[in-house]
């Protein structure tokens, strides 16, 4: 009788069940454990007056890590769009940076991002901002996002949406957003599985947002691993100081239609953001504006003032502290809503009149006296 051949090189062999369990463990390790370890090892450089750079604004892996670090170090978090981020000023002249200097202490972290409208901000906080809890949050609301149905995302016409990976992917509500089914699935996968968020970070940080296959074609003599570093510097490096105001740029008067609060997608998302932040036990102060009234026609300005009043009335009714940014001098606006350097000085002084700053003013004075 012929003996069955035994593979002597195998010390043990796995049956189907054992193979399946091993496969699941490997998959979990790659999808969840690897990103966790990477996040602990990678050095994302931040410091005083840090803000995520314009080129890194779509890197939500970096945002999540910065939010975690900021929540540990700073008692106050500033959320908003490019007005807070500082479109026309250097990092040392943004609104959070000016407030820190006035308080003589590093109190405020700048977690604003360029183009961060309320619909996107809701997704950002939901999926990547869980560390922002039990904090004082200065939440900026820019009415500019309601100046038309297009900006409000309530228009039916297809358009290029800011931060599309943050908006609801399978809602029939946003007809202007026309990503294909496969693309929407990939975005949902990135939100829920850390490994895919990490992959997107690696592509943005080390491969100029190029697909790996395309990068290898463009760089045939380089290896992908040589591009990857465990130290990332995602801060804004471009010099952005500008003194040119909106009139000098030749901007003419605008006739904006404005979307009322009860029909605005952006406003509805903003109320959801407020609810989410309150559920995470944050103390909220809303900064309303600024917006350049000199750019508007009389009819459009009248509609805006009504919107402004409705926003403040809602905040007051909800017992939410708020600061309505007063109209700045015309020459302090760079465009429709971005202030120039001196405009941020006036806004900082206005914000600091709010009682939420009292403990931090005392803290800064104490630190200043110790230094002396």
Brief overview:
By secondary structure, the protein is α/β, with parallel strands linked by helices. It has helices spanning 16-41, 60-73, 82-85, 95-103, 118-128, 149-152, 181-192, 194-206, 212-218, 265-279, 298-317, 341-351, 358-371; strands at 43-44, 76-79, 108-110, 136-141, 231-232, 283-288, 321-324. It has a single domain, classed as 3-Layer(aba) Sandwich (Rossmann fold).
In N-to-C order, the SSE pattern is HEHEHHEHEHHHHEHEHEHH
Helix proportion: 40-55%
> What would CATH call the homologous superfamily?
SGNH hydrolase
- The count of strands amounts to 7
Q: What would you say the CATH architecture is?
A: 3-Layer(aba) Sandwich
Per CATH, the class reads: Alpha Beta
| Binned strand content | 5-15%
CATH topology: Rossmann fold
Q: Sheet bearing the most strands, described?
A: 5 strands, parallel
Structural class: alpha/beta
Number of domains: 1
Task: Please count the helical segments.
Answer: 13
Unreliable parts: 367-372
Radius of gyration: 24 Å
- Round the mean pLDDT to the nearest integer and report it: 89
Shape: globular
Distance between the termini: 97 Å
What does this structure look like?
The structure is a single chain. With 372 residues, this protein is an alpha/beta fold. The protein has a single domain (45-371), classed as Rossmann fold. The chain contains 13 helices and 7 strands. Strands 3-2-4-6-7 form a 5-stranded parallel sheet, sandwiched between helices. Strands 1-5 form a two-stranded parallel ribbon. Strand 6 (283-288), helix 11 and strand 7 form a beta-alpha-beta unit. Helix 4 packs across helix 12 (341-351) and helix 7 (181-192) crosses helix 8. The longest helix has 26 residues, at 16-41. The radius of gyration is 24 Å and the shape is globular. The protein starts with 15 loop residues before the first helix and ends with a helix.
């Amino acid at each position: 009788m012929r003996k069955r051949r035994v593979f002597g090189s195998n010390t043990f062999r796995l049956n189907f069940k054992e193979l399946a369990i091993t496969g699941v463990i490997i998959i979990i390790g790659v999808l969840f454990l690897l990103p966790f370890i990477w996040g602990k090892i990678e050095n994302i450089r931040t410091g005083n007056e840090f803000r995520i750079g314009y080129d890194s604004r779509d890197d939500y892996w970096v945002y999540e890590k910065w939010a975690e670090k900021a929540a540990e170090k700073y008692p106050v978090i500033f959320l908003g769009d490019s007005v807070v981020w500082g479109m026309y000023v250097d990092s040392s002249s943004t609104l959070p940076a000016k407030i820190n200097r006035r308080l003589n202490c590093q109190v405020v972290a700048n977690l604003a991002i360029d183009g961060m409208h309320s619909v996107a901000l809701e997704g950002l906080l939901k999926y990547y901002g869980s560390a922002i809890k039990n904090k004082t949050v200065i939440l900026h609301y820019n009415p500019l996002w309601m100046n038309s149905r297009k900006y409000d995302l309530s228009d039916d016409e297809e358009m290029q949406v800011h931060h599309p990976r943050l908006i609801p992917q399978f809602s029939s509500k946003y007809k202007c957003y026309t990503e294909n089914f496969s693309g929407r699935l990939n975005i949902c996968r990135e939100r829920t599985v850390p490994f895919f968020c990490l992959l997107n970070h690696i592509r943005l940080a080390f491969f100029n947002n190029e697909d790996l296959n395309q990068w290898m074609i463009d760089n045939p003599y380089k290896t992908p691993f040589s591009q990857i570093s465990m130290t990332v510097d995602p801060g804004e490096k471009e010099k952005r100081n500008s003194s040119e105001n909106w009139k000098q740029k030749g901007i003419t008067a605008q006739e904006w239609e404005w979307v009322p609060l009860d029909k605005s997608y952006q406003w509805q998302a903003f109320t959801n953001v407020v609810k989410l932040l309150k559920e995470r036990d944050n103390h909220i102060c809303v900064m309303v504006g600024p917006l350049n009234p000199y750019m508007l026609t009389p009819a459009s300005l009248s509609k805006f003032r009504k919107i402004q009043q409705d926003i403040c009335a809602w905040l007051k009714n909800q017992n939410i502290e708020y600061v309505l940014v007063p109209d700045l001098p015309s020459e302090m606006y760079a465009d429709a809503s971005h202030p120039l350097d001196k405009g941020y000085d006036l806004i900082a002084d206005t914000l600091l009149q709010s009682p939420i700053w009292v403990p931090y003013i005392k803290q800064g004075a104490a630190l200043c006296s110790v230094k002396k």
